[in-house]
Amino acid sequence: EAQVTQNPRYLITVTGKKLTVTCSQNMNHEYMSWYRQDPGLGLRQIYYSMNVEVTDKGDVPEGYKVSRKEKRNFPLILESPSPNQTSLYFCASSLGGQTSGVFTDTQYFGPGTRLTVL
Amino acid sequence: KQEVTQIPAALSVPEGENLVLNCSFTDSAIYNLQWFRQDPGKGLTSLLLIQSSQREQTSGRLNASLDKSSGRSTLYIAASQPGDSATYLCAVWTGGFKTIFGAGTRLFVKA
Q1: Number of Cβ atoms within 10 Å of the Cβ of A92
Q2: How many Å is the Cα radius of gyration of chain A?
Q3: pLDDT tens sequence across B59-103
Q4: CA of A104, closest CA in chain B: separation in Å?
Q5: Are B89 and A49 contacting, i.e. CB atoms less than 8 angstroms apart?
Q6: Which pLDDT score, from 0 to 100, does residue A103 have?
Q7: Contact between A10 and A114 (Cβ < 8 Å)
Q8: What is the distance, to the nearest Å, from the Cα of residue B95 to the centroid of all Cα atoms in its chain?
Q9: CA distances from B45 to A48, A77, A92 (A)
């Protein structure tokens, strides 16, 4: 089954304790992206990746890191989480990317990770 | 900077009514526009994707239109049902390969 998976689904942590949220897709998609969703603000893009080793900032990258060492995986790293990073996080992937240069395919979303930073 | 606005923020209608959700964007240089549905506490489900060269897309009771020149898209839902109750989000893919979402319209269909 084609899907985007995220782990963990729920996480409660404390300020300053480094954490990683994993994202994996099995559709051989080039494009992957991370979003956060906050009440009243909709989804805001954190980082995106056009291909392996190619990443770029979205609208709200501060406090986050990403890496794309393999095509299927795109982990989100919070080096020193703070309470303002409490949010619902979504990973997404799409067929288009650096190689094709086109974005004619839909974005497929993971189930979300609810993060609480105390 | 691209901005996406959805109006209304919330909508309550009786079952069976036809309804229109609106999405507007400030920069017409987009690759495509996508409509999603989100149920409470859940992920996003893609409903319709309209390429920048297209005017509309249809799927079942849903019809989405795109007018790039005016920076507008509408999602038309025919014969609404209680199961249509959810938040509807529109998103545009920009020339910089970023995706910008609207804040969504929360729809409640009363039985």
Answers
A1: 27
A2: 14
A3: 999 999 999 999 999 999 999 999 999 999 999 988 767 889 999
A4: 7
A5: no
A6: 64
A7: yes
A8: 20
A9: 19, 25, 11
B34, B51, B102: residue with CB nearest A107: B34
Closest in B32, B91, B97 to A104, CB measured? B32
- Count of alpha carbons within 13 Å of B47, Cβ hemisphere only? 26
- Chain A CB contacts of B45 under 8 Å are 109
Are A25 and A34 in contact, with CB atoms under 8 Å apart? Answer: no
Nearest residue on chain B to A4, alpha-carbon basis? B43
CB contact under 8 A, A48 and B102: no
pLDDT above 90 covers what percent of chain B?
Answer: 79
Work out the average pLDDT over B50-56.
90
Confidence class for position A98, pLDDT limits 50, 70, 90 = low
